[in-house]
């Protein structure tokens, strides 16, 4: 890694693994968090940069009355249809990358954390990253947490999980693993430890 600048950390994990909980804590501790899910939501909000291309590709029915992308409708379409998922990613991912690049320039924290759910699945991120942190929990726990949080059925969560890389493949790429099978307070403790490790990188 380049020792003359602050570290850039890639934070990944499967759906519902705890990325947001970890990155929120890192932000509290002084990290500059750049969340690609949040950017994707902004791009698809009313007036968002991706809206014209979404209408051209998926038709006006993909937009709800307030002008935002209809997420439930698109979720149904893309997690059942790999070609449509690739089309949606083809619209959003280049715009997400541009925005990540812009936010990285701001460099407002002790280190930057790029929260990227599809870090392992999609190429093109590694050159930006000094360190990869994986949040990991048992698949059953993931399923239960997403069902509770989003009101999804078990089948809906499994359909999303099937489009993501398996845990072992993700773990094999990790420089640091935050295990999240127990309580939120333990997750905070582990995140505080990870934060300390990342700060040591900066001092190396
Ligand atoms: C499919 C969409 C409409 C579903 O919206 P929804 O509000 O239900 O989910 P949200 O955007 O909050 O994402 C939640 C989680 O779903 C998973 N997920 C999202 N997109 C994808 C994808 N293309 N492939 C696999 N998993 C995905 C991730 O674990 C993510 O953290 C939405 O996720 C989307 O627009 N996806 C394409 C953009 C993308 O790839 N985002 C990931 C960040 S790079
Ligand atoms: N250790 C834990 N104990 C109990 N609930 C947890 C724990 N960790 C996370 N959760 C809850 O599980 C859900 C998923 O966590 P979180 O949103 O942080 O995951 P995520 O990886 O960001 O998810 P996504 O991929 O969908 O964006 C949230 O409702 C969160 O509050």
Automatic annotation (TrEMBL):
Keywords: ATP-binding, Coenzyme A biosynthesis, Cytoplasm, Kinase, Nucleotide-binding, Transferase. It is found in: Cytoplasm. The keyword rRNA-binding does not apply. CDD domains: DPCK. It is an enzyme of class 2 (transferase). Signal peptide: none annotated. ATP binds at residues 16-21. GO terms for molecular function: kinase activity. Gene3D superfamilies: P-loop containing nucleotide triphosphate hydrolases. Pfam families: CoaE (PF01121). The keyword Zinc does not apply. Catalyzes the phosphorylation of the 3'-hydroxyl group of dephosphocoenzyme A to form coenzyme A. Belongs to the CoaE family. This is Dephospho-CoA kinase. It comes from Limnobacter litoralis.
């Amino acid at each position: 890694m380049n020792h003359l600048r602050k570290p850039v950390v890639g934070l990944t994990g499967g759906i519902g693994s705890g990325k947001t909980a970890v990155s929120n804590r890192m932000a509290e501790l002084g990290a500059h968090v750049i969340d690609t899910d949040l950017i994707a939501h902004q791009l698809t909000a009313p007036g968002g940069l991706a809206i014209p291309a979404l209408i051209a590709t998926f038709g006006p029915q993909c937009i709800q009355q307030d002008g935002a992308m209809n997420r439930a409708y698109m979720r149904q379409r893309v997690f059942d249809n790999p070609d449509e998922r690739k089309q949606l990613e083809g619209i959003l991912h280049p715009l997400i990358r541009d925005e990540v690049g812009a936010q990285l320039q701001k460099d407002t924290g002790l280190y930057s954390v790029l929260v990227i759910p599809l870090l392992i699945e999609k190429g093109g991120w590694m050159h930006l990253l000094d360190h990869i942190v994986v949040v990991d929990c048992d698949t059953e726990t993931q399923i239960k947490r997403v069902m509770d949080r989003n009101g999804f059925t078990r089948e809906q969560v499994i359909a999303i999980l099937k489009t993501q890389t398996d845990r072992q493949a993700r773990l094999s790429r990790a420089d640091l693993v935050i295990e999240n099978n127990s309580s939120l307070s333990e997750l905070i403790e582990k995140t505080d430890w990870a934060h300390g490790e990342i700060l040591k990188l900066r001092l190396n």
